[in-house]
Design a protein that fits this description.
single chain; alpha+beta; Structural Genomics Hypothetical 15.5 Kd Protein In mrcA-pckA Intergenic Region, Chain A; 2 domains; eight-stranded mixed β-sheet; 5 helices; 24% helix
Length: 197
């Protein structure tokens, strides 16, 4: 009796999942008129890299502490005196941390308390990994560092726009004559973002 012929069927390899990119809109809260940026961000980067990207896109100088609040979880720098329950941002990718959330917070400078609302506008499948973040658009310069939060910044704007304001000269000396709250340079922002890749 002939032996049954054995045929080898290789196990099909799972198709690789296409890389994803998140389209994020970042708004600085409690500031009027609005200061915002729209970014494309590779979903596989870690939250500490997202922090670097937000710093560049907004125009901050990374001079203070920061944290993300995503859902019920807080992710931060995990320094010596980090808050109880805070997760180490360096251990979580953006995709893993964000999950199905469509809004989260980024807080910068716990003294000035700059709160940013981050909205996941779109999750985009791309044919190849995006090597670095891209800023698509935005409006207005972010406040100078150490300008004492939204209310301090509003006072700063009033003072520099009014030559008769008692603090006009003091603020102009601090921020410089070339500070323009309406300015946002998209091309320069993208050049700097490329160097973060």
């Amino acid at each position: 009796m002939p032996k049954p012929k054995l045929t080898y069927k290789p196990t099909p390899k799972p198709k690789p999942t296409a890389p994803t990119v998140l389209q994020l809109r970042i708004d600085l809260e409690e500031v009027d008129p609005a200061i915002w940026r729209r970014l494309l961000v590779p979903s596989g980067i870690h939250l500490d890299k997202l922090h670097d990207i937000i710093q560049v896109a907004m125009g901050w100088t990374d001079s203070h502490l920061h944290a993300f609040t995503i859902g019920a979880k807080r992710y931060g720098m995990h320094l010596d005196d980090f808050a109880e329950g805070e997760l180490d941002e360096k251990k979580f990718t953006v995709l893993k941390a964000v999950g199905n959330e469509r809004r989260f917070r980024y807080e910068y400078d716990f003294g000035d308390d700059w709160q940013h609302q981050v909205v996941v506008e779109e999750v985009i499948k791309v044919p190849a990994e995006l090597p670095f973040a891209v800023c698509l658009e935005g409006e207005r310069s972010c406040p100078p560092e150490d300008s004492h939060g939204p209310y301090g910044y509003a006072n700063l704007l009033n003072a520099i726009e009014d030559p008769g304001h008692e603090e006009h000269d003091e603020y102009i000396e601090w921020v410089g004559n070339d500070f323009d709250p309406e300015e946002f340079n998209l091309a320069t922002t993208n050049v700097i973002l490329q160097h973060l890749g």
